[in-house]
Amino acid sequence: MRAGDKITINRTVLKNRLTMAPTVKFDMASADGKATDEHVEHYRERAEGGYGLICVEATAVTPGGRFGKNHMGLWEDGQIPGHERIAKACHDAGAAVIIQLNHAGLNSAPDLGEVIAPSAVPTRREGVFAKEMTVNDIRNMQERFADGAVRAKKAGYDGVQLHGCHSYLINQFMSKKTNLRTDEYGGNVENRARFGSETIRLIRERCGEDFLISVRIAGVEPDVATAIEVAEEYVKAGCDYLQVSTGIEWDDPTLKDEGKPYNLICELGVRFHEHFKGRVPVSCVNGILTPEAARFLIENELVDTVDLGRAALADPAFCRAVLEGASYVKCFDCPRCQYGPGMPHKCPAELSKKSSILPGNHV
Ligand SMILES: Cc1cc2nc3c(=O)[nH]c(=O)nc-3n(C[C@H](O)[C@H](O)[C@H](O)COP(=O)(O)O)c2cc1C
Questions:
Q1: Partners of 54 in beta bridges
Q2: What is the CATH number of the domain that holds 219?
């Protein structure tokens, strides 16, 4: 298999195996959660850079589920037109495009309303506990995700990705650490997967059979085998694509650094691929910052697709380096990558055009 090979996921054709990973741009959204011109240009530039699939950043399904005020949303119809422009810009450049739908749950910004979670566990604010969601709250939230997906479809996206990792709401239902419930949404694996599975079913019902539904899933929660069981529930519910990253708890002695040319977070995707091979496409992510690393994972058929985060931020056309051996601007792999303002000014992502690259960072 080659990085340039096509792949069809549900009915969406990706012209290659390279996906732009969701990466929020806090500095771009307006306080009403609408996409801005900057977003459109940001995604257009990367779609023109050659990605088979663009996954638009975490987008909130309710105003209270945001990370902070400057965070995009799809909780009302007035937000659709901005997304129409992003989807069109990506399609015009030949890329498929999906959008990541999210509610931050326990990790929502406390100044945006009451913080909710599967259970009344401590929030980011010292001494403050989350409000445990009632079954009614759960059903309402699933409807909000489905409404977001319907708006995404209206905007022209090929599908959605549910944010099921990185300690946000869907992941919080999956994790025993944040889900202490004793009803049908807590306890065994099937119950802890239920919030996500029912959400997938609702989206499938509302958006139709050919709408791509991906889940970005925690590949270790607390271990890989359990995370795979949860993924099986999502697949039964209609998930078409598993994009694997990290979760809340990491307690798996089988994950050992054995000097492979990819890190242990990527290894999660590789393990999922071993399990789901031929049934459900699987991608991996994390630390794929060179064309060689991307090619290694695809050419050895360790995963179906690779997700590229910082590499795509640092150089919108990083794909061409993978596909054609073109030169590229390399991510500095800073210890703590920028999340919004305060990004180190030396970051090449600050300089969106290749013509203004920093000396010594062009590979
Ligand atoms: C600036 C920035 C924003 C991010 N935003 C999101 C996001 O919106 N949703 C998400 O699931 N992950 C997000 N991530 C995580 C990335 O998608 C990716 O998993 C991580 O950066 C590791 O991959 P990489 O080494 O290719 O960058 C973000 C990462 C960065 C650096």
A1: 20, 97
A2: 3.20.20.70
pLDDT(350) > 70: no
Domain presence at residue 91: yes
How many angstroms separate the alpha carbon of residue 253 from the centre of ligand 1?
25
Tell whether ligand 1 has an atom less than 6 A from the beta carbon of residue 243.
Answer: no
Domains: count for the chain: 1
Report if residue 290 sits inside a domain.
yes
Does residue 362 form part of some domain? no
Query: Which residue has the least CA distance to atom 6 on ligand 1?
Result: 23
Structural domain containing residue 125: 7-356
Cβ of residue 306 lying under 6 Å from some atom of ligand 1: no
> 339 pLDDT band (50/70/90 cuts)?
very low
Above 80 in pLDDT, residue 293?
yes
Predicted pLDDT of residue 206: 98
pLDDT > 70: percent of the chain: 92
**Domain contains 158:** yes
- Residue predicted with more confidence, 126 or 308: 308
